[in-house]
């Protein structure tokens, strides 16, 4: 569609060579951007210009560009994923901006997510938390028929609400304490709700909360910024559920 | 070369059980002596690495993303098939087998497809045990829905995020093994070469995408689980990082590439909006359960859809295929949409779109039910197009989605290079010329959870562990070759960006080798691709350094491989003088426009041997035999 007007925007982007570089903001101009460009496609255009000028393009994590893989991670004008409700950066479109806007772009900022380069951070701490117990310990094969354990629809639905987490880490980036409680709470809740996960629920919540602390994540002090930042709308009630599971585990 | 698929003989119902019994076993105490490399950690790779780790093998797993949870399997939305017959509508292993063989237009091996149908039931059980919150009914039983190409409801789903939930299941199983120490996970690594010693796969060379360092890993077997290659069309529904690189490097080291021309164009995608666009987005096929496809009867009708009266709409799928209707298989539905647009009755910008209309279902079931079933897809559609599909119909158009072709493998999933196994979308095995909906998740997990754990044992039992180490000369040579390539990319300093080349290649492929191909269009491509490749190596501009995180360099490598592979894809399409499944040659069609297969001359797997860049590859044929499903014209009418 070439029949609509284009925008010119000023981008103020965090550039950082590597983990030890202090990093700084640099200013770029995005030209000929249409309302149909996604935010990342807008950055693609800026990068093409930078390459033509012999400069290093801005590096950023992205992959599926469908809002599902959870790889993209940018703080736009102070809000993880740009602050549009239930939207990842890759699904944020330029129709949400207007001609002449100035946009600040930064990486996730959290102690547990060291910056690798420019807008790319290391989120392997989230993997570490899952490795601590975010699973049911069933071996491949030799399990019961799928219908052998009945799960009422409301329970399956609530587990699904929790399971929607894409592990992008926006909850951590949005939290003033850099806490991963929404992420961990979602996984703990999903598995604790289901009969398959109940057997290990106490051990799981204990191990996962311990791993969170060891990875350098902070604690929840009820700011609800995680829920506001979450592109999948994960509810903070799952943090409450995790806290209950944790308490239960202490008395078990 | 004689291509032996090593298919078990005898009654099809017993083939897998018999074969499993005949396979040699590795003593549990000896398993830890064997190292296995798994490249790619999506459904096939994640499941394989987890299952092999559980068995006690020493597994090294690699992915290019920051975490195995990001593999593109995560984006498969609709569901996963299994022959459970829970809805009591007449499903069976045999029927799933039959539908898959027919859906693939009789270009897949019977034994492989039987096995897939047989283990499909185990997959559901496995995933439920992992805590995947599949949709349930109020009594607590698993719910099902239908997908294209089937008249039974055999698809299990987790809202519109089945792929995500299944992948996270495999990822959690993998995470458990990483914690247990049986699997070592290497994130942000891209495989850039296969190391072959005396004709046997012995390891890989990878680039550490953070530091730029090249690393060598040796093993007793290598499993490629690296997905498909439809990003050769530039715009596709695949993730940006999906490439042919791992497969292509293995091909250059001797692995045969089978049926590359079988690419699937998915009918239910959001139409392209502009030139800057980086990808196309798929709307799940499950939408066609409740959405009706139509186009205006009048050419060039630009009225808004709600002003086009019922009698001036053509519900073309229901008209042409009354028994399958909107659930016609993907290749059929894609071509039907293209036909509407080619005749000038397309809607939206450039006339490249048809309507997918939910009004009738909303009237019948209410908006809440539709929201319950597909809410997240409607949201996604609105974000991209700024249109509310509850109020006016979605606009859809076909887009490259899946590759049925891939590296040739035998029944054990081993390529013709001993020690090199290929799983999931990266191999060619079960989908024939077209894949039915909800079967990609099924194949990935079947290969990873329930096939490779058995078949790899049969191979490892015959070899001594640890024969080749990373200090072998072949590893050194491989590293040097990769290094040379990197230096070359960085030294050219031309005028055009990598994306620019990839876009040109993709356009060429879509136009001349896309939904329809002809002898002329393919010959044109075979002439133009080498020229573009030559220009690429003279005129590409890659900034930055090799000793750093450099996304342009990553893309340059992938594009260079696509530039070689694209030619093979076109050659395969040119040699196959027939239409079948996702391969539609305009010269070969019936009067009513349906694909015309030629079983007398082309009932075989076409497997190509690499003879050098720019040199004509050599074709090997593995004949296909159909003893259980008789070759017949594929009809969905």
Could you explain the architecture of this structure?
The complex is a heterodimer of chains A (252) and B (637). Chain A has 252 residues and is α+β, with helices and mostly antiparallel strands. In chain A, 35% of the residues lie in helices and 13% in strands. Chain A is built from nine helices and seven strands, in the order ββαβββββαααααααα. In chain A, the strands form two sheets. In chain A, strands 2-1-5-3-4 form a five-stranded mixed β-sheet. Chain A has a two-stranded antiparallel sheet with strand order 6-7. Chain A is elongated and about 60 Å long. With 637 residues, chain B is an alpha+beta fold. Helices cover 37% and strands 14% of the residues of chain B. In chain B, helix 10 (359-365) runs antiparallel to helix 11 (367-385). Chains A and B meet through helix 1, helix 2 and helix 3 of A and helix 3, helix 5, helix 6, helix 11 and helix 12 of B.
